[in-house]
Amino acid sequence: MPEPQEQEMTIAGHLNELRSRIIRVLLVFAAALVAGLATAEPVYRWILSAGQQRVSIELHALSLWDGIGIYMKIAFLLALAASLPFLLFQIWKFVSPGLKAVERSAALRCVPYVFFLFAVGAVFAYFAVVPMALYFTASINRSMGLHETYGAAQYFSFVFNIVLPVSLLFEMPVLVMFLTRLGLLNPGRMRRWRKIAYFSLVFIAVVITPPDFISDLLVAVPLLLLYECSVYISAVVYRKQLQRSAHRSD
Prior knowledge:
Blueprint: H1 4-52, E1 59-60, H2 66-95, H3 101-143, E2 150-151, H4 152-169, H5 172-181, H6 187-192, H7 194-208, H8 213-249
Parallel strand pairs: 1-2
Helix pairs in contact: 1-2, 3-4, 3-5, 5-8, 7-8
């Protein structure tokens, strides 16, 4: 057993290492934020033009800070995306010494899929879910005889609040694969949880889409398919684990 003084030094060493890695991440994020501010305007123009191709809207500044706030939000998201690989690398360097070989292998194999599925989810949300939500809300406002005056900051918050949750939900297969490799999940457990999972995913689809059946269905069905793909992935990974265990026992 290590002495209390040695334990304190070990904890202090871990805290110093953690602080050092956090500082590095913040410095990289700050540099990426500056670059994001330089590219925020063309990204803003692209988001706005892509949205107006589906629903004709006119944005207004309802506050003196709306323009700056939008640029900062776009720059923040760009900086987050740009610095995410470095952030994951720093997390990996910090936790990898305490992981087993199988856990390190599982984490490394999952990393490429994280970016791919996040991008697929963002594209699906922006080009499928957002237009439906814009069309539905705009049609309701017009049917009520309301004069549409959309605030630019509110519009971009509306878009980001849809894109980000859907993008994160698309990470479900890679999360299931990672948890199955660690032995924390298996296909049998996921099949037993199917009813609860279906209800949760349909509830999320209803919350983030306009309140009409078609929109809910167009979002709920891909999420349910993602869950079934996750069950299949878990079954494949679990079967391979059983085969490796059988070979080692032989």
